[in-house]
Amino acid sequence: MKYDFDKVIDRRHSPYSYSMKWGTSKLVSEMVEMQSIPDDSIAVYTADMDFRCADPIIKAMHAVADHGIFGYSIQDEAPRYYEAICGWFARRRNWKIKKEEIVYINGTVEAMRQVICAVTNPGDGVIIQKPVYGPFSGAIEYTKRTLVNNSLVEKADGYYEMDFEDLEQKCKDPRNKLMFLCSPHNPVGSSQSRISGFLISARPIAVRCCCPPDNWLGSLCWCS
């Protein structure tokens, strides 16, 4: 199926856009430090694509809307929901998962908060690697944990890489119980493939640190 990636869709002035990226809300003005995005500017401050959604998705949403009733819905009444998730991971990641292993949660950032609360206590250290997606810090602060920064190192060629010596020291600290790995890294774009080797070689150290990957941008690396 071919898609038109050249068509420009006006998201500034459409009455149905409700766009954070192109909007004029207080949140937008605080993020970009201006009242609105000028017409001669391009907004690139958030991960929001301006391509039209794929037709199969639009058709599926129309089918639900045409049904005309929007009562309480649950995933267990929609077996295709689980089939789609399991199929996607099997095709794209060669990862066979079962329906019973899927837990629904309302958003990735909320999932991060839940993980923090599940495996750490208030005051425990949570390792992240700045510069990194802002809500990583927010999730740690919101749950009253201690933010521990294992800063990425900028090289002469402009690329960033991990500081493994510093990471090892931070993993040795018994006060640090969790690490959030962003791969591919947002915003620097690097794929943190060497982390798996580090965790294997440093297993006696890293075993104390639960290390769930943030992989919501993984398709940028894995798509053929």
- Per CATH, the class of the largest domain reads Alpha Beta
Count of DSSP H/I helices: 9
Strand content: 5-15%
Mean pLDDT: 81
Structural class: alpha/beta
- Mind describing the biggest β-sheet? 3 strands, parallel
Structural features, described:
This protein is α/β, with parallel strands linked by helices and 224 residues long. It folds into 3 domains: 1-70, no CATH class; 72-104, no CATH class; 108-222, Aspartate Aminotransferase, domain 2 (3-Layer(aba) Sandwich), CATH 3.40.640.10. It contains 9 helices and 7 strands; from the N terminus they run H-H-H-H-E-H-E-E-E-H-E-E-H-H-E-H. The chain is globular, with a radius of gyration of 21 Å.
Question: What would you say about this model in short?
Answer:
The protein is an alpha/beta fold.
Question: What keywords describe this structure?
Answer:
pyridoxal phosphate binding, cysteine-S-conjugate beta-lyase activity, about 35% helix, alpha/beta, Aspartate Aminotransferase, domain 2, single chain, 7 strands, about 220 residues, two-stranded antiparallel sheet, about 10% strand, three-stranded parallel β-sheet, lyase, PyrdxlP-dep_Trfase_major, pyridoxal phosphate, 3 domains
